[in-house]
Amino acid sequence: MKSLIRPAVTLFLLLSVVTGLLYPAAVAGVAKLLFPHQAAGSLIKHGDEVVGSELIGQSFSGMRYFWSRPSATTPMPDNATGSSGSNLGPTNPALVDAVKARVEAVRAAHPDQTGPVPIDLVTASASGLDPHISPSAAYYQVERVAKARGLPPARIKQLVDQYVESPSWGIFGDSTVNVLKLNLALDKG
Question: pTM score, two decimals?
Answer without folding.
Answer: 0.80
